[in-house]
Specification:
By secondary structure, the protein is of the alpha/beta class. It has one domain: 3-Layer(aba) Sandwich (Rossmann fold). The protein is built from eight helices and five strands. The protein starts with 5 loop residues before the first strand and ends with a helix.
């Protein structure tokens, strides 16, 4: 059986990637493909517990290396439990965040650098790379405004706190934003950059175009 495609969506919180992932999944389902949808951190029972620890604002004083190690612990579980089995069965996997997020947030935001993140990826993930990464990069200001407003709304409605990263200073998020641009420039064959403060439909058009092309290439290769 041909191996499935591994597609990730990346970007700052508030970039619209979760909305676009849902839209992409619906588009694929209309074309007769039912993708496996997951997220990081989270997506497994173990991962959801790690997610709660990582994103809760009450998790104070977490060392950057400890934070990175938890991200990779979550990722290792997701690969073993969800991603690899789905790909082996020929399914397309849509994942909300992967190692690019760790490189951007811990490598860039926490200033650990890319090298340590990529080495951890090699050791923990066996070098597994997405076939296609859709990087949504609206302006930093727009992303932060939407993310903080959303977290306030969710906290008020459900009491669930996932605002730990959004509480960081703007300079932290600027380093994340710049690291994402660096990743896109380094790996243009894998990363499709959707840049600027575009409307939801405009972003979807660019995403669908990129995915349709990659699906066509995969079909021809088979």
């Amino acid at each position: 059986m041909p191996r499935g495609l591994f597609i990730t969506l990346e970007g700052l919180d508030g970039s619209g990637k979760t909305t676009q992932l849902k839209r992409l999944a619906a588009w694929m389902q209309k074309r007769g493909t039912a993708p496996v949808i997951t997220r990081q951190p989270g997506g497994t029972l173990t991962g959801d517990r790690i997610r709660e620890l990582l994103l809760d604002s009450r998790s104070q004083g977490l060392a950057p290396l400890a934070e990175m190690a938890l991200m990779f612990a979550d990722r290792a579980q997701a690969i073993a439990e969800v991603i690899e089995p789905a790909l082996a069965e020929g399914n397309t996997v849509l994942c909300d965040r992967f190692t690019d997020s760790t490189e951007a947030y811990q490598g860039g935001g926490r200033e650990l650098g890319s090298e340590v993140v990529l080495e951890m990826h090699r050791l923990i993930c066996g070098g597994l790379q997405p076939d296609l990464t859709l990087l949504l990069l609206p302006s930093l200001e727009a992303s932060l405004k939407r993310a903080r407003r959303r977290n306030d709304r969710v906290a008020a409605q459900s009491g669930k706190d996932e605002g730990r990263f959004e509480g960081e200073e703007d300079e932290f998020h600027r380093r994340v934003w710049e690291k994402y641009r660096e990743i896109a420039a380094r790996d243009p064959d894998r990363v499709v950059l959707v840049e600027g403060d575009l409307g939801i439909d405009e972003v979807q058009e660019q995403i669908v175009e990129a995915v349709a092309m990659r699906l066509s290439e995969a079909h021809v290769a088979r």
